[in-house]
Amino acid sequence: MIKRGIFKANDIRGITEGTDPEWDSAGAYAIGAVAVDVLDLHTAGALVVGRDMRVSGPRMAGAFIDGVLSQGVDVIDIGLSSTDQLWFASGRLDLPGAMFTASHNPAEYNGIKFCLAAAKPITSANLAEIADRAGKAEPTPAATPGKRTERDVLSAYADHLHSLVDLTGIRRLRVVADAGNGMAGYTLPAALGRDDLELIGLFTELDGSFPNHPPNPLEPENLIDAQAAVRANAADLALVFDGDADRCFIIDERGEVVNPSVVTAMIAAQELAREPGAVIVCNKITSRVVAEVVQAAGGKIVISKVGHTFVKAAMAEHDAIFGGEHSAHYYFRDFWGADTGMLAALHVLAAVGHSDRPLSELVSRFERYANSGEINSRVADQQMIMDRVAAAFAGRGEQDRLDGLTVSGPDWWVNVRPSNTEPLLRLNVEASNSETMEALRDETLGLIRA
Question: What is the mean pLDDT of residues 127-141?
Answer without folding.
Answer: 93
